Amino acid sequence: MLKGILPVLPTPFAADGSVDHDAMERIVDFALASGVDGVVFPGFASEVDELDGRERGSLLRLVVDRVAGRVPVIAGASAPSAEEAIAHAREAVAAGVRIVMIQAPKSVGVTAEAVAAFYGAIAQAVPEIEIVLQNAPAPRGSDLKPDVILTIASGNPAITYVKEETLPAGPAITAILKNKPAHLKGVIGGGGARYVIDEYRRGACGAMPAVEIADVHVALDRAFRSGDLAKARDLYMRTLPLLVIQANFRMAFTKYVLSRRGILTNHASRAKLPPMDAMDLSEIDAWLTSASSLLTTGNVMLRGAAE
After folding, report:
1. Would 162 be classed as within a structural domain?
2. Which of 35, 104, 131, 186 lies 20 to 30 angstroms, CA to CA, from 303?
C-alpha cells in the first residue's frame, strides 16, 4: 500500500535548457536519503508539459533505474485524451512501473458517466496497472466532487487510490474515506503539504509534496504515525512559511532550495513562472536558515539571513 511521503520530483535543466540527467540522479538520491516512501515522476511539478516524449521516457527510466526497487515509483500519465494517457501508461509499464497517476482532462467534463468512461478505457487497455485518480482544483483540474469520485471509483477496480487536492481538501477526504469501495486502498493528500496535518488527521494515507524539504516531511510523517502530534505540528509550523512561498513560485522555488542545499547548480525552469527577485530569494534564505536544524540530508549551504 502506498503511504507516507511520496514527493513529486522536478526536472532539472542545464544552463542551455537541456535536461540535466546527472542532476536528476542527484535529486533521486536526495529523496531516497531523506527516507521517502515513494517518488512520483512525471507530475505537474516536473514541468511535464515542457518535456517532449523522448525526454519524458528517458527520465522515467532513469528514475526507475536509480530507485532500483527500494521504494515505489508512481508514474504520471495524465494527458489530453484517453489514447495519450494509455500510451503514457504503457510506457510506464515498459519501464517497470505499475502504479500510474492520471487526472481526467477538463475536455472530458465533470459528470460521473463521462469521467468514468475515460478511466474505464484506460483500465481496459492497460489492465496491469493500478490508477491513482488525481483530483486537482480548477482551473487546472476538474474539481470533481466526492460523490462523483466515489461513483467513478466504485465502478472501476483499477482505481486504487485518489489524490485529493481540491480546496479545501479535508472534507472531501473525509467523505471519500467514509464511503469508499473495498478496493480503494487510500486517499493521498496534495496541496504541496500545506494542509498535511489536517489531511493526515482525516485519514489520508500519504502526501505528495515537492521534494526540496523531503527530510522534514518524512520526520513529520514519522512523528504523526508514532502518535507524537505535538512534534508533527511543530515541524509543520516551522516549515509552513517556506511552503507558502513555494505556492507562488512552484518549481522555481523547489529548484532554488535544492540549489541552496547542494543538490542542484541552478534553478532553471522551462515553464513560465513568476520571476523571483532579490527580495524573494532573501526571504527564502531567511526561512531556510531558521529551519536549518531540521534539514538533515545532504549539504546545507545557506547564506546568512541578512545577506
Report:
1. yes
2. 35
